[in-house]
Every structure is written in C-alpha cells, then in structure tokens.
From TrEMBL:
Its main location: membrane. It comes from Kineosporia succinea. Residues 184-303 form the ABC3 transporter permease C-terminal domain. Part of the ABC transporter FtsEX involved in cellular division. This is Cell division protein FtsX. Pfam families: FtsX, FtsX_ECD. It is found in: Cell membrane. It is a multi-pass membrane protein. Residues 56-161 form the FtsX extracellular domain. One of its GO terms (biological process) is cell division. The keyword rRNA processing does not apply. The chain crosses the membrane at residues 21-41, 180-203, 223-256, 276-298.
Length: 304
C-alpha cells in the first residue's frame, strides 16, 4: 500500500512538474557528458603515454667531418671512442636502464632519411657522407632517459644526445593542462546540476505543501514524505545519465575511432570499451548528486 502510494506520488510529481524534470535531465546530460569526457581524456593521455614511451629511444649522434659541436673539436669520432661508448653502454651501471643498443651507420642513416623524406626536395640534396653515425638506445624505463643522456653528453666523439622524451614531456604537459581544463569545466557543470536539482525540489515541495502537510498530520515520517521527491530527482538524473552515456559512446565510436583514428595514425586512441567502462561512474555520480541534493534541500524546505 505504501509502495503504491509512493509510486503514485512520483507519477503525479513528474506530470505536474514536467518542465522542471526536463531541465534536470538536460543539465544532468551536459554535466555528466563533460565528466565522461574528463575520464576519457585521462584514458587517452595514459594510452598515448603507453604507445609513445614504448617507442622512445635515446640517440647518441657521433662526431662527423663537418660537426661543429665543442666535443667534436678534434674531428670525427675515432674507432677507440666508438669502442669506449659501446663498452659504457654495456657496462653494469647502465644495465638497469638499457634494454637494447643499435648502431646506425652513415649509410643506414641515409637510407632512413631518404625513406622519411622521399616526397621532399631535401632528400635530393643530402649524401650518405653527410649523415651522422649514431647509437640508438632502447630503454627499459623511458622516463629515466636522463640517466643515459647525462653519461654521454659533451663526451669527446659525441656530437649530441637526443631523446624523444624531451618532446613528449612537453606534449603530455599540454595534454595534462587540457585534461585539467576538462575536469574544471565538468566540476562547474556538476555544481550547476546540484543547484538546479536543489532548486527544482524546493519548488516542487512548495507546490505540494498541502499534500505534505496532510501526510504529516496523519503521522507520516519525514523520510516517507521526502522519498517521492528524492526518487523523482533520481529518475530524472537516471534519464540524463542514459543520454550522457549514449552521447559519450557515440562520440568515441564515430568521432574518435571513426574519424580521428583513421586520419591521425601516429598514436593509439581510446575505444568504445573505454567509454563503456566509464558509464557506471556516470550513473553513480548522477544518481548520487540527485539523491543527496534532493535530500539536503528537503531538510529545510519540507517543514510544515
């Protein structure tokens, strides 16, 4: 009997306040969608880090005949200097950091340059003798590239030491700032959602103050009076979570995987599975905000 009464009150409340319910749904959709994008941005940054850091190398470029670096003042690298560099790369002190070492000759560097810039006029103006020899070092932990870099920087026979981490660190710093911006925007919209839900519930309670007064007179508990209002807001939030989840999955499937991943193939991207794993969190956040906002709003505005 009580359950049926609560259901009837919810139906009546939603029918009477359809405009308010729709506004709660819409603001919930926007706020939860932005929250989902924040989660997705976090996953994307982690995915890009896994992709790129597994491919990071430290490149030790050796002095050539035309090198102008201070460490190349004595001319091109000698065989003895090469042997010492190779020995240091294989030394026990660097074994915890070095996974594998490749030596790239001038001809190999030239062939790779020609392949990379085959459609550019640059490839026609470079000879094999102009290309530097180098050691390419794969790391066990790419984030520790400075340990290897510091050992060989400014060493006689070494023109320069470069690591892709120097570029990647700046890239991921930018991505982290964008991710933080997405989270801040999501937080603002969630705050708007909380305020709207609380205001909607207060107005609903005010328009039905006569019914709640009668319920209080016949001995209904505070929780029993509040329950229909709380459930109304949670139903609206659940509808908003469904729509926000659908929008997040659609964006991931059609925009990220369907367009972005096909046009920009330099890294991996999040997929529908990542979006689906975020969906439960959207429901938890949406229902939690709606329920708590309604409960706190009713503590003050449902007194009769």
């Amino acid at each position: 009997m009580r359950f049926q009464f609560i259901v009837d009150e919810i139906v009546i409340g939603l029918r009477r306040n359809i405009a308010m319910a729709v506004s709660v749904v819409l603001v919930t959709v926007v706020s939860l969608f932005l929250v989902g994008l924040g989660f997705l941005a976090q996953r994307q940054v982690d995915t890009m880090k896994d992709y790129w850091y597994d491919r990071v190398q430290v490149s030790i470029f050796l002095c050539g005949d035309v090198s102008t670096a201070a460490s190349c003042a004595d001319g091109a690298v000698t065989d003895a200097q090469k042997e010492q560099i190779q020995a240091d790369l294989n030394a026990p002190s660097l074994q915890p950091y070095v996974k594998q070492v490749y030596f790239e000759s001038k001809q190999q560097a030239y062939d790779r340059f020609k392949e990379q810039y085959k459609d550019s006029a640059l490839s026609e103006n470079v000879t094999a003798d102009q290309m530097p020899e180098s050691y390419r070092v794969d790391l066990k932990n790419p984030e520790q590239y400075k340990v290897v870099s510091d050992v060989f920087t400014d060493r006689p026979g070494v023109e320069s030491v470069e690591s892709q981490n120097q570029v990647l660190d700046r890239l991921f710093a930018l991505l982290n700032q964008l991710k933080l911006g997405a989270w801040l925007l999501a937080a603002v919209t969630l705050l708007c959602s909380v305020l709207l839900v609380a205001t909607t519930i207060r107005l609903t309670a005010f328009t039905r103050r006569r019914e709640t007064g009668i319920m209080r007179l016949v001995g209904a508990s505070n929780f029993f009076i509040q329950l229909p209002f709380i459930l109304e807001s949670m139903i609206a939030a659940a509808v908003g979570a469904v729509l926000a989840s659908g929008a997040l999955v659609a964006v991931t499937h059609f925009q990220i995987q369907g367009r972005l991943a096909k046009s920009l193939t330099f890294t991996n991207y999040v997929g529908v599975g990542d979006a689906l794993s975020i969906v439960p969190w959207l429901f938890i956040i949406g229902l939690g905000i709606a329920g708590v906002s309604a409960f706190l709003a009713l503590q003050r505005y449902l007194k009769v």
